[in-house]
């Protein structure tokens, strides 16, 4: 039988990890180092390089892998006294002691918050870095740590600009990107990025805008181009703190009040954020309820109303013979009604261009769990060496569980270690590994058993998880701050902690749980079942659930309850601001499936009833990541008909603010513009949820297929915004 592609890939990864491990041992073995040609001759695996160019590329990749794991590969002058200048070639080594973990020790409380922080990332790349950092810190962690299971923050990033910006922050490199501000005005920015962080469910970049010669904060979701990282370097100010910058972003109270008429029995989400209105001037017609919505500006009010579609309308004029009270003014009502009308017209115009869109998917990049990379495999091999050296005689099954792998995978790793060693690879130069009696012993690998310092990216991933904990109500900021400084010390990069921590002068009041969350956390601690009245926004209805709660999750500025739903007979997640009522329902049961959950999740279910192909413009590009699109591709959208009001969609909106998005090719100085339009295949729980997305983000999202989804969206748009008073 022919070997599968998966088994071939695993063999290739194992062979590469074996070569890297032998290279690392060689670089550690001799203080004077080796030349490239010497390494090519003594490191098994380099003989597979077909020619010199292939070897050079392989060697450069291998150096980068070792450096990313915390081993500083140095290039030093050749020490051959008989060689001429033309013959001199550099030698390579890893200086002894240069990679060792600084002396640091974490208390039980600090170890517990580190475990929670490392488990926070939903982003695959940052999750790997944070977990690798925790693995390296294992010798410094307290054995008494018991991470609480009742609270779990999560860090989710849906902005493609995050990765390149974080890399630029760590490397102190200037960046360029195209940006659209709250008014719709477009501009190109050149920024020295000082820090990246999240607040109120959004990610922000803080730095120095070199063109405006001032400090600025940018919301990542408004970056509408690729981020171009330049070669220009800078030094961030010593007193800058991203934590302090985020702490000063205090949410302002709403400034405006608007009355909305909602169809009786509908618009549950809008009702949830509004209050009943008893103003006779704005009384609702038969079949509707009047509610009062407190908002920051007319656009945010219009967004909420448009999301409700046909079930909500903003009255423009007070009832005949009445005068508005001082709370709600006619000017505000008219302004919001106009904003709603404009947004709906933009949505209709954009949807009207969808019939001309042709979607050809082509070959898609793989999503989800990818095969283990060479670097990941090498990191695991090194962690096994460090762990077993500290626990000689550890049981094989227990060790496999510790690393989250099968017994067979652990044996394969031990077999790989067994054939690696110092140059020469004679029996006494190889790593001594034995596991025949079910207990693991390792020897002859002392240089690999020493704890390794964190790299800056590893420390940064762990620190940003800890930073998230500072915003979680009920957390202990003192313990978190102490852990942050020790993590930065483990990377020999104390400025990282200073940049992410919240200075005392900028610290705001400790975040507190709401009465509902306090009650839910009490139910978790006491093992009590709760009866919830829960708003299901996708179906616009309030349901009753019996839930055995397990933990609280904090993500994107919201709190969630994770527990076992008796109606569904499965784990479910409930957003706390959509819990309408909560009461005790007796003693909770223990559910094995919940107990076996290693990580909390608020990701949507993999299968949804409605599968649709949506088209977004550059300002709606976040939808591709946020809704976990299964595939996406650049598409062409027909130009709008001229002379039609609203046909320009977002462009008309930008023009109304005195700016229009520049349609420009990439130049020698400037970032690459993102695709103007992207089609994405996305799953939705209901057709109403899809329709609500189209009207909420009016003029930036349209639906191409299937036909029944297109028909539902068009009907939703046609019946939305109809005046009823």
Please describe what this structure looks like:
The protein has 725 residues and is of the alpha+beta class. Strands 4, 17, 18, 19, 20 and 21 form a six-stranded mixed β-sheet that branches. A five-stranded antiparallel β-sheet has the order 8-7-6-5-9. Strands 11-12-10-13 form a four-stranded antiparallel β-sheet. Strand 15 and strand 16 (439-443) form a beta hairpin. The longest helix has 25 residues, at 5-29. 40% of the residues are buried.
Mean pLDDT: 81
What structural class results from the helix and strand content? alpha+beta
Helix amount: 25-40%
Return residue spans where pLDDT drops below 50 for at least 5 consecutive residues. Answer: 1-6, 366-372, 505-510, 598-607, 643-668
Task: Supply the number of helical segments.
Answer: 23
Shape: globular
- Bin the strand percentage: 15-25%
Quickly describe the structure.
With 725 residues, this protein is α+β, with helices and mostly antiparallel strands.
Any chance you could write out the topology, listing elements then pairs?
Blueprint lengths: L4 H25 L4 E2 H7 L9 H17 L5 E3 L14 E3 L14 H11 L5 H13 L14 E4 L7 H10 L1 E8 L5 E14 L2 E8 L4 E6 L8 E6 L8 H6 L8 E8 L4 H5 L2 E2 L11 E8 L2 H10 L4 E2 L16 H23 L21 H17 L3 E2 H8 L3 H12 L13 E3 L4 E5 L2 H4 L6 H15 L6 H14 L3 H7 L14 H12 L1 E9 L4 E15 L2 E8 L4 E6 L3 E9 L4 H4 L14 E8 L4 H5 L4 E4 L15 H7 L20 E8 L2 H10 L4 E5 L1 H13 L6
Parallel strand pairs: 4-18
Antiparallel strand pairs: 1-3, 2-3, 5-6, 5-9, 6-7, 7-8, 10-12, 10-13, 11-12, 14-16, 15-16, 17-18, 17-21, 18-19, 19-20, 22-24, 22-25, 23-24
Helix pairs in contact: 1-11, 4-5, 4-15, 4-16, 5-15, 9-10, 9-22, 12-13, 15-16, 16-17, 22-23
